[in-house]
Amino acid sequence: MLHGGYVGPNMPALPQTGRASMLLASAISLEIPWWKIITRSWEQDLANQMAWAFSQSVAGILSNTYRVPFDNITSSHSEEDEDGFEIDFNDNLIADSEADEDFTSPSIQDMMQENLSGIYEHARLSDELEVTLRMSPVSAELQSMLIIPALTRSIVKETPRLKHAFLRDLLAKIEHQPSGWDAFRIGQRHFYELDDQTRDPITNTSSISLIAQTQVFCREAFSVRDRKTGELLQGDGAIRIVPHLVRFEMVVRVGGSEPGLGSWIITDWDDLLEGNVWYT
Predict the structure, then answer these.
(1) Contact 190, 151 (CB under 8 A)
(2) What ranges in the chain are assigned the alpha helix state H?
(3) What is the pLDDT of residue 2?
(4) What are the tens digits of pLDDT across the range 170-211?
(5) Bridge-partner residues for 87, per DSSP?
(6) Taking the CB of the first residue and of the last residue of the chain, which one, N or C, has fewer CB atoms within 10 A?
(7) Which of 197, 122, 127 is nearest to 155 (CA)?
(8) Distance between CA 266 and CA 158 in Å, rounded?
(9) Residue 144's closest CA among 6, 51, 265, 239?
């Protein structure tokens, strides 16, 4: 999924021209100023924001799973502080926090799509194991953007017959067309008809989905030890630069009486859900 052209399982990667078109269409949908589109500075801005969101989500999982106050395991540090970490977690913190009646933690459901957050609902390891994770994003790179007109994850959930409308049904219509122009016209009509089916009848607002993949490089140290014997069971606690592929999704509402940008949520990372794809 890494090289910028991933669409979905068993689907061909987008060519370079297709990826460039998706980036441009996505930037316009995100209401990025033209000068940032021309200089492409918006891509790094977005990647940096997504790297921060990734680290906050990891901290949120640890906080919720181990019942440790979020602020106890997160901190802000300057780029000059090479020894600092945004996340500094050791489950020895648990004994001091589980009795804390003022325990607070952000809801990971607000950060992550439910299929991904559900993996971590019962992720707490045995109390006989000591878990340590220290992590800070150090750089990020936007790998790809995919724009899906007239469809969202919630629309497909409510109307399952539309699951294949974005790609499989479209490809079936244009497969035997004699020219690229004929295929374009048929594709255009296909999405107009799809928009008519999914447009909000009350607000006359259309919805589109934006899907972004960002490579986040983190400075990390991770280990799992047997609490009684001290035996190292996983990781070694050494600090390394570790890449993570993180997939985000946003719904944008267009036209009508209620247009506007939604919020980015994380739908997958490191291919745990093979992209968590809903449209192929």
Answers:
(1) no
(2) 16-29, 34-39, 41-66, 70-73, 94-97, 114-117, 153-158, 168-174, 180-198
(3) 44
(4) 888 887 777 778 888 888 899 999 999 999 999 999 999 999
(5) 74, 135
(6) C
(7) 197
(8) 21
(9) 6
